[in-house]
Amino acid sequence: MVGFSLCRSDEIVEGQARGFDPEQRGRDSIFALRHDGQIRIYRNSCPHLDVRLEYRKDRFMSADGQLIMCYAHGAQFLPATGECIYGPCLGERLQAVQWWEEGGWVVLDTTQIESPLPRAREG
Ligand code: FES
Where is the Rieske domain (predicted)? Predict the structure, then answer.
């Protein structure tokens, strides 16, 4: 399977999120976070209106790091599942991105992203 190396897994810190632009479109199309020790990756698209969630670079989480926020209309999502628990898209979910760890790197299946793939490698 061809993988795309996103970042080192230890760069994803508990209670924080980081946006990434693997499709090189000049905006972060996915974001990764660590919650309860587990890394989760979601598409940066709110189920309410298909807009980006963050209010500025890497600001996807509530102040206490316990929830994912959409800053457009205040929707709140569970980090573990992406389920909306408050706001206009209540009950809907963020779209999870599949990944695996390889040699300390977070690697995405390239079928989930569009080229260019500057760091693609065989896995
Ligand atoms: S666009 Fe996210 S809550 Fe409205």
Answer: 4-108
Q: How far is the CA of 51 from the centre of ligand 1 (A)?
A: 7
Share of the chain above pLDDT 70, in %: 92
90 touches ligand 1 (CB under 6 Å): no
Domain residues of the chain, as ranges?
Answer: 2-122
Give the mean pLDDT of 104-120.
74
Residue closest via CA to ligand 1's atom 4 equals 73
- Give the CATH number of domain 2-122: 2.102.10.10
Contacts of 63 (CB under 8 A, 6+ apart): none
CA-closest residue to ligand 1 atom 3: 73
Q: What average pLDDT score do residues 14-36 get?
A: 95
